[in-house]
Amino acid sequence: MDKSKALESEFRTYYRPLCLYALHYLGDTDAAEDVVQESFTALWQQEKAIQSVKAWLYAAVRNRCIDVLRRAGKTEPLPMDLDGPISDDEALERSSLEARLWTAVDSLPEMRRKCLLLAKRDGLSYKEIAEELNLSEHTVRNHISRALETLREGGPEILDFIFSFF
Q: pTM (2 decimals)?
């Protein structure tokens, strides 16, 4: 496989989890995406062989995040979660799970995805969702039920994470 195809494959595999990982450090989506893009550029420019591209990318993103935070005056840059600081290993694990979650949510049919996000992310009731989308409450309930059923197939940790995340 040539270098550009290999990089494209790595990009498709790791871009989203790396962005979520960087987001745990930086708390800013744009800055996280910039750090990840810079890391992929550095990977492209790397001349010597890398044994584990995944490990290299995560280390590069972590180091770049720490650099960004130190330039901003943070003395102890730690990854953060809604509950406060977390370990780097926990940030890596959560970013991987979050990426799986968002990939699964993105793969849902449009109306199911809308209903699920309005209910779980935005906290709307079935009645409010029905009014907003011009659907019956029964239809909203079915869309959410089927969306959760589909996500459950992705593994119990995804479903558990949905309810802790949203």
A: 0.70
What phi and psi, each to the nearest 5 degrees, are found at residue 81? -135, 180
For 1-95, CATH gives 1.10.1740
Q: What is the pLDDT along the chain (166 residues), one digit of tens a residue?
A: 677 787 788 888 899 999 989 998 898 999 999 999 999 999 988 878 788 888 899 999 999 999 999 898 887 777 777 667 778 788 888 888 888 888 888 889 999 999 998 998 888 999 999 999 999 999 999 999 999 888 887 666 665 655 555 5
Looking at the chain, list the stretches that DSSP marks H as alpha helix, in order from N- to C-terminal side: 3-26, 29-45, 53-71, 88-107, 110-116, 126-133, 137-152, 156-165
Domain 108-166 architecture: Orthogonal Bundle (1.10)
Give the CA distances from residue 60 to residues 39, 55, 108, in Å, rounded to whole numbers and listed in that order. 6, 8, 32
Count of residues in the chain: 166
